């Protein structure tokens, strides 16, 4: 708003004050003014349009959102923005911002400013902006800048946070193939280091990348690589255990890795069962349904079953999930897991009975849960009443 009057495009000036329009509104005559100026004009008893001098048959004023948006873009993009051709301006500005990021002479502060502008432009999912980002290959560049950095993470943390924020916004726009660069040894090492040493914002961005990597056939190998990187799996479990602010994102990342069957053994070895049990048992557990579904997927592994039964509160935690009015799917997953472990381990059966599973199953059968859930609940009841077997 502090631009020199000579630099303000005529379209962005209020006809009354000649200053930059802060809150553009339009009269019935089609003329646009700054709200404060036109309200003073009308309050003084004037019933005409200041520019056309036409009488106002309707004195109401309407916010001009389109012009407001163009002014915001001009303020962010600077002199490259041409209000007469905003699309060309956007492309030219993005090209300039990319050159800024690529330049070794550009200062860190200049690059941070460039990233802030990129972040703002990537919020607008119009087809033209999408095309600009794709044509200019922004995603590969940002991935290279984040994971190819050789300097201290602490020195670059603000840049990394902002770059990861931009990456998150660009991931839905096109091919995910550029993510495969992370498989490279040094870049993978940086990925793990950032997960270990980064801020919550950095960890959230990395979890988003893991989630995206599991969603495309182009990045199956990357998903496998991440899921079989022991240090990374360990760090994800640690976040689930200890960091409430990011634990939900870490559960999503764990679920993403678990979608690939070949990753599941690595997750179990990395302590996923213990981490999930701790998470579900905590007071703040907004991602509990997803966490229980991860356990259900892991039950195909003998090591996961043993880890659950050996966990001090594993079976009891699952029993507590059997009757959840707010989430029937969570109840079904919990019953399915108990069917597996109680069918194979007599001690799991005993722990479930001690934890009050019969009462919860009866409540579940009286609820509005699905027929599938009720069928599984009846199977578990039958199993629990059957003769014990040794295991």
UniProtKB/TrEMBL annotation:
<dbReference type="GO" id="GO:0016567">
    <property type="term" value="P:protein ubiquitination"/>
</dbReference>
<dbReference type="Pfam" id="PF04564">
    <property type="entry name" value="U-box"/>
</dbReference>
<keyword id="KW-0808">Transferase</keyword>
<feature type="domain" description="U-box">
    <location>
        <begin position="7"/>
        <end position="81"/>
    </location>
</feature>
<protein>
    <recommendedName>
        <fullName>U-box domain-containing protein</fullName>
        <ecNumber>2.3.2.27</ecNumber>
    </recommendedName>
</protein>
<comment type="pathway">
    <text>Protein modification; protein ubiquitination.</text>
</comment>
<dbReference type="InterPro" id="IPR013083">
    <property type="entry name" value="Znf_RING/FYVE/PHD"/>
</dbReference>
<comment type="function">
    <text>Functions as an E3 ubiquitin ligase.</text>
</comment>
<dbReference type="Pfam" id="PF25598">
    <property type="entry name" value="ARM_PUB"/>
</dbReference>
<dbReference type="InterPro" id="IPR003613">
    <property type="entry name" value="Ubox_domain"/>
</dbReference>
<dbReference type="GO" id="GO:0061630">
    <property type="term" value="F:ubiquitin protein ligase activity"/>
</dbReference>
<dbReference type="InterPro" id="IPR045185">
    <property type="entry name" value="PUB22/23/24-like"/>
</dbReference>
<keyword id="KW-0833">Ubl conjugation pathway</keyword>
<dbReference type="InterPro" id="IPR058678">
    <property type="entry name" value="ARM_PUB"/>
</dbReference>
<dbReference type="InterPro" id="IPR045210">
    <property type="entry name" value="RING-Ubox_PUB"/>
</dbReference>
<dbReference type="InterPro" id="IPR011989">
    <property type="entry name" value="ARM-like"/>
</dbReference>
<dbReference type="InterPro" id="IPR016024">
    <property type="entry name" value="ARM-type_fold"/>
</dbReference>
């Amino acid at each position: 708003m502090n631009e020199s009057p000579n630099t303000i495009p005529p379209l962005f000036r209020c006809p009354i004050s000649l200053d930059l329009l802060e809150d553009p509104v339009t009269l019935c005559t089609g003329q646009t003014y700054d709200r404060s100026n036109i309200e003073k004009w009308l309050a003084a008893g004037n019933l005409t349009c200041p520019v056309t001098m036409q009488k106002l048959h309707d004195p109401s004023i309407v916010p001009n959102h389109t012009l407001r948006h163009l002014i915001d873009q001009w303020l962010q993009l600077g002199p490259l923005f041409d209000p007469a051709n905003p699309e060309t301006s956007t492309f030219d500005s993005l090209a300039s911002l990319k050159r800024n990021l690529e330049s070794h002479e550009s200062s860190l502060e200049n690059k941070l400013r460039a990233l802030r502008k990129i972040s703002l432009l990537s919020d607008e999912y119009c087809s033209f902006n999408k095309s600009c980002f794709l044509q200019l290959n922004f995603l590969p560049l940002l991935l290279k800048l984040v994971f190819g950095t050789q300097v201290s993470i602490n020195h670059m943390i603000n840049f990394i946070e902002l770059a990861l924020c931009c990456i998150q916004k660009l991931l839905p726009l096109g091919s995910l193939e550029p993510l495969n660069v992370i498989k490279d040894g040094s870049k993978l090492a940086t990925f793990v280091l950032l997960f270990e040493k980064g801020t919550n914002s950095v960890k959230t961005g990395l979890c988003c990348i893991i989630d995206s990597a599991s969603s495309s056939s182009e990045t199956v190998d990357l998903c496998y690589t991440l899921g079989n990187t022991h240090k990374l799996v360990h760090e994800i479990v640690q976040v689930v255990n200890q960091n409430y602010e990011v634990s939900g994102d870490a559960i999503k990342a764990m679920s993403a890795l678990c979608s690939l069957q070949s990753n599941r053994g690595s997750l179990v070895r990395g302590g996923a069962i213990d981490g999930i049990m701790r998470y579900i048992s905590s007071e703040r557990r907004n991602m509990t349904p997803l966490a229980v579904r991860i356990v259900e997927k892991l039950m195909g592994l003998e090591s996961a079953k043993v880890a659950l039964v050996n966990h001090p509160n594993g079976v009891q935690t699952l029993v507590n999930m059997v009757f959840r009015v707010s989430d029937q799917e969570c109840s079904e997953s919990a019953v399915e897991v108990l069917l597996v472990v109680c069918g194979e381990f007599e001690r799991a059966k005993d722990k479930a009975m001690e934890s009050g599973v019969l009462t919860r199953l009866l409540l579940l059968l009286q609820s509005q849960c699905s027929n599938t859930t009720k069928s599984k609940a009846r199977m578990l009841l039958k199993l629990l009443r059957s003769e014990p077997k040794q295991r």
